[in-house]
């Protein structure tokens, strides 16, 4: 009987130690997953920022070219409105558009095609960011259930993810 109780205590102690070791092994895995999610989110934020900047630069170039090509006698409000538009179809609706030379037409049309491609890339990056955020929510739920002491730190880190390039 004594040996049975002693064997039971040794087995319980071994199970307790093994469980603690398993938890310690899982914690670095959860933290590695969290770091990977942060890196992915940061990369996606930077991608979105770069695409946005590319779109702004594209339309700034179109506006500058249009500004040079618009007739001097064009009403100032109409001129300002046309230069503010960042959409090929809307630019083409202005009465003065057909009077502009074909080089300007090509610039506006090419910008529309390029912008459509940028918009598609932005949607794909945003979809990837949404998927990343879903994985983050899942990870935070697992942290709350298994490692509640780690939750505040990781939640704060996820809440502050942004692009740090420039």
Average pLDDT: 87
Could you state the order of secondary-structure elements as H and E?
HHHHH
- According to DSSP, the number of beta strands is 0
Q: Alpha-carbon distance between the termini?
A: 72 Å
Coarse morphology? rod-shaped
Largest sheet: none
Q: What is the number of helical segments per DSSP (H or I, 4+ residues)? A: 5
Report helical residue fraction.
over 70%
Which stretches of 5+ consecutive residues score pLDDT under 50? 11-25
Share of residues in strands: under 5%
**Pairing-aware structural class of the strands and helices?**
mainly alpha
Over the alpha carbons, how many angstroms does the gyration radius reach?
A: 29 Å
Please describe what this structure looks like.
With 166 residues, the chain is mainly alpha-helical. The chain has a domain at 58-158. It has helices at 2-69, 76-84, 88-93, 102-146, 151-159. Helix 1 packs antiparallel against helix 2 (76-84), helix 1 runs antiparallel to helix 4 (102-146) and helix 4 (102-146) packs antiparallel against helix 5 (151-159). The longest helix has 68 residues, at 2-69. It starts with a helix and ends in a 7-residue tail after the last helix.
């Amino acid at each position: 009987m004594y040996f049975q109780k002693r064997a039971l205590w040794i087995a319980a102690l071994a199970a307790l130690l093994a469980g603690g070791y398993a938890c310690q092994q899982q914690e670095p895995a959860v933290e590695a997953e969290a770091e990977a999610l942060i890196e992915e989110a940061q990369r996606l934020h930077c991608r979105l920022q770069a695409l946005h900047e590319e779109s702004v630069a594209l339309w700034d170039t179109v506006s500058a070219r249009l500004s040079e090509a618009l007739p001097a006698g064009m009403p100032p409000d109409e001129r300002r409105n046309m230069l503010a538009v960042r959409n090929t179809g809307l630019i083409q609706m202005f009465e003065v558009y057909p009077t502009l030379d074909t080089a300007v037409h090509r610039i506006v049309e090419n910008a529309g095609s390029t912008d459509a491609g940028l918009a598609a890339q932005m949607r794909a990056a945003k979809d990837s960011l949404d998927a990343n955020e879903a994985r983050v929510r899942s990870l935070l739920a697992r942290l709350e259930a298994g490692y509640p002491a780690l939750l505040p730190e990781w939640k704060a880190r996820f809440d502050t993810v942004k692009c740090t390039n420039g």
